[in-house]
Every structure is written in structure tokens, then in C-alpha cells.
Amino acid sequence: HEPESVRSLYGARPGEESFANNCLLARRLAERGVRYIQLFDWGWDSHGTNESTSINKGFIDKCRSIDQPIAALISDLKQRGLLEDTLVVWGGEFGRTPMSERGNGRDHNPSGFTMWMAGGGVRGGQTIGATDELGFKATENRQHVQSIHASILHLLGIDNMELTYLHQGRPERPTINEGEFCEQLVTG
Predict the structure, then answer these.
(1) When comparing pLDDT for 162 and 23, which is higher?
(2) Cα separations (Å) of 63 from 52, 119, 120?
(3) Which residues contact 16 (CB under 8 A, 6 or more apart)?
(4) Which long-range contacts (CB under 8 A, 24 or more apart) does 21-25 make?
(5) Fewest CB atoms within 10 Å of the CB: 7, 11, 85, 175?
(6) Which element (helix H / strand E) includes 150?
(7) Global confidence as pTM
(8) Which among 79, 2, 115, 90 has a CA at the least distance from the CA of 38?
(9) 107 phi/psi in degrees, rounded to 5
(10) DSSP state, 91?
């Protein structure tokens, strides 16, 4: 029931399975007060061993399929006054090595990866951290994954040291005893 202008903004087509439709659905859910929405976009396990997963063809095509819907989601949330209360987190659990390993393609790389956040109290327009010139390992302003989790929890209004859950009968913290939120990330 969205106007054509909105569907066009996202690149969404009714009845079609697509990341664009999922982004539009996410906006509709946020608009209706759903507190947690998680989107998946499959096919990022691109080792580069064939054309559909190569860095100069498949990866470019994959990025093109998500760029427009993601930009539309953020601008649509902002236009509707929802972005300031909606935290958008984009990322995965690892990056890719910059080189082929033993001819088997690019391997998983936990030492250098990218995440980005928007809205929900995130200070925009900045880059925190950097990798070496090859993109192999984080070298500058490195953030431990527990600090990233602590930052997300802080933005959601949750003290990571107070949050516990039962795991095998004993209380655990998602950030163990580590992790302080990254102050550069948070506005105000």
C-alpha cells in the first residue's frame, strides 16, 4: 500500500523477495512501534573463488543490490522523524583477507572488518579506526567486539555491566567483564 514514489525510492517491487522489500518492511515495522528488527541479506560469504563472488564482479553486484534500499531506509526514517529514536547497525562478524590464501580465495578475517551505525544517538559523519594499507588488520583506534556491544547497549539505554542473563544456570554478561562504550560514537 505504499505510493509508487516510496517503492521507487527503495527499489522495492510488491510480492518480490528482495532486500529492498525487507528494508521497506523494516521501516513500516519501526513506524508501528516494533522495538527490534533484524534484517539478513544472504550471499556475503564471498571468498572470490568464482565470478559471482569475485571482488571485481560479484561483490560489486552485491553492493549495488543493497546500496539503494539502505540509503532509502535511512532517509525515509529521517524524513518521518524516526531516525533519532531508531538505531541502525550494519555489520557482520568478520571481514575478508585482502589476498587469496593458498589459491582457495579470500578467507575470513576477524582482525579487520567494517561496521557502521546511524540514528539512535550515534554521532554521525565520523570514522573510528582504520586498518593497515592492505586492509588486513586493524591498526588505529581498534575497538574490541565487547566495546562495540557495550556501545550498542549504551545507545539502547542499557548498562552493559548491569545486563545479565542465565546461561547454563549461572548469570552471564554479554560483554563479560570487559567493554566500555566508545564515547566518540555517542552524541551529547
Answers:
(1) 23
(2) 12, 21, 24
(3) none
(4) 22/69, 23/69, 23/70, 23/72, 23/73, 24/69, 24/72, 24/73
(5) 85
(6) helix 145-155
(7) 0.87
(8) 90
(9) -90, 170
(10) E
